[in-house]
## 1
Amino acid sequence: MSAGTFNGPNGRIQVAPGSKFYPGTIFMGFDLAAWLDEQLREEALQCAPHERSGHERRQLADRREP
């Protein structure tokens, strides 16, 4: 893949190509993998929510719970 830069909860984050992040590993003061998973879940809930069934929306919402 390629290098990436984005805004995380603690400021700007730059990652090198080939970087791997696993849930439970702290990177720049927070669990980057878990945070990215949460961002994707939130984005999925916002993208075409009318196309999902109530059951699918509940499943996605349940995954946001800690």
## 2
Amino acid sequence: MNPSALTLKDFCDAYRLCREKAYQEIRAGRLRAVKVGRKTLILHADAEVWAAALPELRTVGREQASA
């Protein structure tokens, strides 16, 4: 069964983030979180939206960097 929400720990494990970085993303408004009692949850749909909005890594080749 695939749960529709991740605990903060499960989210951090899945996306290889530390807990502080996840909370920074939540505070900045880039990642939506919900509360159930004291537990913080990230809905799968919100995690996917967050991941899709991450900036693409663009690297410059060595030939172009020295030009």
## 3
Amino acid sequence: MRGGRVLAAILALIGAYSGAVEPGHAQPYPARPVRIIVPTVAGGTVDVITRLIANDLSSRVGVSFFVDNRSGAGNTLGSREAARAEADGYTLLMSSASGQVISPLVYRSVDYDPIKSFAPIGLVAEGTTATSLFTGIS
């Protein structure tokens, strides 16, 4: 019975303090520019698709979405930078399958976990030369 009294006391305390807590107000998203890291060269398929999407998002949302090309090392340089970014929704990654699937299998160390470091947003395009994945940082 003692456990029941302790639980009742804890619930009473929670109830007493619940009225003292103000509900939080979420900030509108996005409230500032959003960076989209593209781990490929400027002018490539993934870059062009990302720029089209960024322009459309900027005009629809009213906040700047900008492309930041970070190419090199089989797409791992930009992917690593994205994985290290703060998980606040203001850094996104647009990658082809090579940076998320092939490079982690080929290189000994890519300094990020392609499964745990990113939260997939969606498949953007498929083609014979590239499959673009839009991901956020988890």
## 4
Amino acid sequence: MKTLWRVTLGVLTGIVTTVFILGKTPTSPRMLGASVVRAEEESCSVASLHGTYAIHAQGTIVGQLPPPFPAPPFPFGEAGIVKLDGAGLVLSGKSTVNLGGVVLQPTATGSYTVNSDCTGTITIKSSAGFVLHDSIVVTDRGRRTVEVQTDPFAVITRTLEKIED
């Protein structure tokens, strides 16, 4: 019991000392490591996204789509490539999409925005007749994005990973 009390007292002493010296609690973002501080210092723009990216997406279609699609809900999967121009345009894209067992290979064009805090949007016009909207976060200095589709008929997450400049 004395050992447990000494360890507890030692931990509390360390926390109090840290707060006294730094004026911050140990859970302060500056104490979590360099990655948090670096993220605060990075800035993004549409120029952050340029080149060819691999697409991976999966999720669930929750709203009714026109025939030949099944009644919702049903699974969604996608793999493909997309070319971004660094000026806010999706120059071209092609993918294989599985919508509840219905397989399509649409092409796409569109546009995107990127804010200085590395958040943004992307709008895709698909040859399958859909206009899709994603909210995005740019990571790894533009080498990757994480996305969530914001259309009410789908719950889909996407990632883009740079494969070529």
